[in-house]
Amino acid sequence: MSDHKVINSRARRIDTPAKATGRAIYVDDLSKPGMLYGALLQSPHAHAKILSIDTSAAEALPGVKCVVTAKEAGLVKYGVSPARYDETVFCHDRVRYVGDEIAAVAAIDKETAEKAVSLIKVEYEQLPVLLTIEDAMADGAPLLHEKYPRNITGEVHQEFGDVATAFKACDLIKTTTVKNKRQDGGFIEPQGCLAEVDLDGTLNLISSTQSPHYIQRTVAMVLGLDVGKVRVKKMYVGAGFGPKAGTNPMELACSLMALKTGKPVKMNYSREQVFMFNRGRHAFTHKITIGVKKDGTLMALEHECYLDGGAYASFGPATVYYAGSLLAGPYKLPNMKYDGWRIYTNKPACGAQRGHGAVIARAAFEQQLDMIAEELNIDPKELRQKNMMETGDTTCNDLNMSSFGMAECLDAVTGGSDWEAKKGKLPKGKGIGLACGFFVSGAGFPIYRSDTYHGTVMIKLTEDGGTVLVYTASAEIGQGSDSAFAMIAAEALGVPLECIRLASGDTDMGVDLGAYSSRQTLMTGHATKDAAEDVKRQILEVLSDELDVPVEGIDIVEGRITFDRPVDFSELRTRYIKEHRGWTDNPDTEYLTFKEASRIAYLKKGTIVGTGKYKPHFLGGTYKGAAVGTSPAYGCSAQVAEVEVDMETGQITIVQIVDAHDCGKAINTTSVEGQMQGSISMGIGEAMHEEVKFDANGNVINNDLAEYKMVTALDMPPVDAIVVETNEPNGPFGAKEVGEGAIMPTIPALLNAVYDAIGVRIFELPLTPERVYNAIQEANKE
Amino acid sequence: MKKLIQLTVNDREVEIAVEPNMTLTDLIRYEIGLTGTKKGCETGDCGACTVLLNGLPVNSCLVLAVQANGCTVETIEGLETEDGLHPVQDAFVEHGAIQCGFCSPGMILSAKHLLDKNPNPDESEIRAGIAGNLCRCTGYQKIIDAIKSV
What we know:
The complex is a heterodimer of chains A (782) and B (150). With 782 residues, chain A is of the alpha+beta class. Chain A folds into 3 domains: 16-23 and 453-614, Aldehyde Oxidoreductase, domain 4, CATH 3.30.365; 31-127 and 189-238 and 244-277, Aldehyde Oxidoreductase, domain 3; 354-364 and 374-442 and 630-781, Aldehyde oxidase/xanthine dehydrogenase, molybdopterin binding domain (Aldehyde Oxidoreductase, domain 4, 2-Layer Sandwich). Chain A is built from 21 helices and 25 strands. In chain A, the strands form 6 sheets. A 7-stranded mixed beta sheet of chain A has the order 3-5-1-12-9-10-11. In chain A, strand 17 (455-461) and strand 18 (468-472) form a beta hairpin. In chain A, helix 7 crosses helix 8 (249-261) and helix 15 packs parallel to helix 16. The longest helix of chain A is centred in the C-terminal third of the chain and has 28 residues, at 520-547. Chain B has helices at 24-31, 87-94, 104-117, 123-129, 141-149, and strands at 3-9, 12-18, 50-53, 56-59, 72-74. Helix content of chain B is 31%, strand content 17%. Chain B folds into 2 domains: 3-77, Roll (Ubiquitin-like (UB roll)); 87-149, Orthogonal Bundle (DNA polymerase, domain 1), CATH 1.10.150. Chain B contains 5 helices and 5 strands. Chain B starts with a strand and ends with a helix. Chain B is an alpha+beta fold and 150 residues long. The interface between A and B is large, with 56 and 54 residues.
């Protein structure tokens, strides 16, 4: 039984009735009088010089209101990380991938805009196309960006402890190399935006985005606008998973054309353009060497990683750090050496996608742990338990586990899956596999260097009626954040959830870094709790004064004012009723209501407004790149997957997945389970079916949702989601993340289960039937 | 050259002139103004545009508006009544079967159609019934729980 009144329940979410009825508005549902439609001219070549651009025919087409290129947009560089700003709105001298933007057109309808785009004449001089890391790093290869020799966007070299010496003391050292493929976010709503300039000169940009704040700053910086005159909002967003966390060229082009034409401009990506833009999971090659003692004690990790990053940096500089830093846990590991390189290639840029750089690293590590367990004849669960970090432990790279329910998660999944009975005892073709993982609850630092708060929240009480208005610039993208903050506000203030009315996703409401790095529950949740407590304090102070009771003797519980002694509040009620003459439902309860108390507070003080803010304390070490991987808290999880493999065809059927995730404290238990199950569905897709495929000219050839194979209801196994709660001290009401941590164990649990079924290790994803079949055939030959 | 068509949308008669190449999705969303039907891919792969055409679920992006001449169309907006949410909608809300909501209108209509035909589907029938509706958020588990509960 929860000792909370609102949170830690299965309350119905506040946004889902509108979504169930079609009333929920997404950006493409909007229409404005005089609205123009925008279309983009995108490069058909993966690498080419631009010799000339002739827009005259496009401009002359009837119905065209505006044609813009780099001439109009300027060449202010932007991206994700200021140290790696390498994009301009439009290319002016070179295109670097199929899809690189060169121009945009705004016209009276979409057909005219697209026709005009086809009339823009660009003269190209093709350049050698670099599609692999080897090609990009080769001597004499053309540089995609002049500043970066050998096309290295960023490289990381870190050592903690002394790996070489530690290896000398090891009884077993194992090396494996694991590769995945580029992924696509696969959100069902393509990116879209609508820009309009008010008559007072404010640019209003509505976009399907995960971070109005980052978009606002980028638009202002790139287009040379006063950031105070740029307002970015989101409607409901059809998911993001990472690719929608950074600014896209369409948002900039749309804003520019709204400014130039004075008319609202709407633009959308087609599904094909979503694939062309990508900004999804990088393709990684991880070479992992783990050294252990024969009793299974982990001693050292040597890790080399190459990331195929596409044509621009995007989140890549952070990705290459995450790929290394998050292997320092969840096990005690005193010695870790990491060398990583993120490489430019002539393909769409890769960015941050659910789990960011840690997902494939985790897969490689957990697979190798299994191999080590087998060789040492130790149960994989025992090997993990033996080395597991505990609450309060800090990794060799200064990441602190302020709460850490990994042991509970491990027990829960092995218990729930019948691990003991099945491990090593299933017939050929059937297998069971285990893995663990963990992730940040928000990055310790914003993506631009700043002292800014990571989240600010305003709460205003209606002057009458006892309704609590919560304003947050955070982004509800499907994860349930709006409901989580409404529940936190209600809990902290002491009122029922029905009293809350929340609005979000608007930069006018405050600062919020947005929905990425699994930060909102912890960080924005803190700011919300703060603001609610501020409001509560103000009401209690007024009541204390009015009723001559000390503040400590008053509380608000489920919408009732409670006192620690008998109090005569009749004078307040009389005043309230006098102001509501004619009302038929005036309060007549034996307790003073929140509604009355907030009215009295308004009459005394004016509008009651509370503010809250959150910034993590300084986290991490002082070494280069120490910032990446830091977080005020870490969510962790364990999974067991059970599979059947058809030895004749290589087809894998997942029988069941049992997942346990420590989220600190579930604000909404149903939402937490939903994130776990959704993470697993993406993990299964990545493990078994999904890969973005290119032809020799750098075109994405499977740029639709039939050939990019995401999991359907027929592919998804039953998922038993077990919520573990360890009461994170750094989290609001003990809460920390679930949005990304839950994807970590999925791929390795499947890799390990498939090995258990077929007796052959596979080191390349996805586990297509062909790949599995070939692995079985190879093994049979030996 | 536009063609005049007549159809019934959510029990209302509509008469409208449309371009021959206009899809049913665009007719519903932009000409009639019912934006609950969503566009996820426009190539019939994701099911976000699912509507019931003469009682059968279709990807409205693969139907030309002119093909809907003389037909009845039911969109997500047609499910709500003055008594509140349709039981399928209520079940989706109650069971947490909706996260970002973009697949939900299509998913709910597919579910409604399944249940109208087969009031007690087993799990494999439910999975088959929604196989044409992609969801990237939920992993389908709670959608299946919701449909089972109706």
